[in-house]
Amino acid sequence: MSIDLDEIIRIREEADCLVDASQVDAAILRMASDITRTLASANPLVFTVMNGGLVLAGRLLPHLPFPLELGYLHATRYGLATSGQQIDWRVRPTREVRERTVLVLDDILDEGHTLHAIVNQLAGEGATKVLSAVLVHKRHDRKATPGMRADFTGLEVEDRFLFGCGMDYKGYWRNAPGIYAVKGL
Fold first, then answer.
1. pTM, entire model
2. How far is residue 67 from each of residues 39, 40, 41, 63, 91, measured CA to CA in Å?
3. Higher pLDDT, 3 or 42
4. 41 vs 64, 96, 99, 142, CA distance in Å?
5. Where does residue 114 fall: left (phi above 0), alpha (psi -120 to 50 degrees), or beta otherwise?
6. Confidence of residue 86 (pLDDT cuts 50, 70, 90)
7. Could you give all domains of the chain from N- to C-terminal order, each with its CATH number?
8. Do 126 and 97 touch, CB atoms closer than 8 A?
9. Which end is more exposed in the chain, N or C (fewer Cβ atoms within 10 Å of the end residue's Cβ)?
10. For the chain, what percentages of helix, strand and coil (3-state, to nearest 5) are there?
11. Beta strands in the chain (DSSP E)
């Protein structure tokens, strides 16, 4: 599959900036404060969901002033969007979760099927507690479970095709410093 780099560049140039870099920074600091209040004494195991959660992890972790262990996982969903659906583990969790408090970091909670399955899987593997943190919560009613929310959320954004801060457009622009929406989508 050939990528039209001119299209990729045009998408970024024409995009609507919904949240600028300074607003993202402020949201990450608020998340860090909330996470610190909750997990500072929990000796948590933090998992970054690849690839989207990588940017959030890199920006958030330096603001968590307590000991934690870090790992990563890579999972994608397949099949119909039903409760309890299975996920395809590209990389299984890189640390043992049994009897641990776990925090899962991801870029966005859109419909949430993958995050829901990851949290359930980690709980099923014996984690004492599994919490989730996302930079962006997309506002709509198509969540994997009614009213689904992450335990920690940085920003709430309208239901559009987003990229930046870990979210991508055709594999590109995860590195954009703010949250952008594709023009017209």
1. 0.92
2. 10, 8, 8, 12, 24
3. 42
4. 12, 19, 15, 35
5. alpha
6. low
7. 22-159 (3.40.50.2020)
8. yes
9. N
10. 30, 30, 40
11. 16-19, 45-49, 69-77, 87-91, 101-109, 129-138, 152-157, 162-163, 179-181
CB 95 within 8 A of CB 121: no
Per-residue pLDDT of 115-168, as tens digits, reads 999 999 999 999 999 999 999 999 999 998 999 999 999 999 999 999 999 999
Residue where the block lists tokens 């560049």: 9
Q: What is the DSSP code (8-state) at residue 55?
A: H
Say whether pLDDT at 80 is over 50: no
Q: What is the mean pLDDT of the chain?
A: 92
CA–CA distance, 115 with 120 (Å, rounded to integer): 9
Whether 128 and 88 have beta carbons less than 8 Å apart is answered as: no
Q: Which of 57, 50, 8 is nearest to 180 (CA)?
A: 8
Name the H helices within 69-151.
113-124
Instruction: At 5, list the tokens.
Output: 């780099």
Tell me which residue of 139, 105, 141 sits closest to 122, measured CA to CA: 105
Cα–Cα distance between 18 and 181 in angstroms, integer? 7
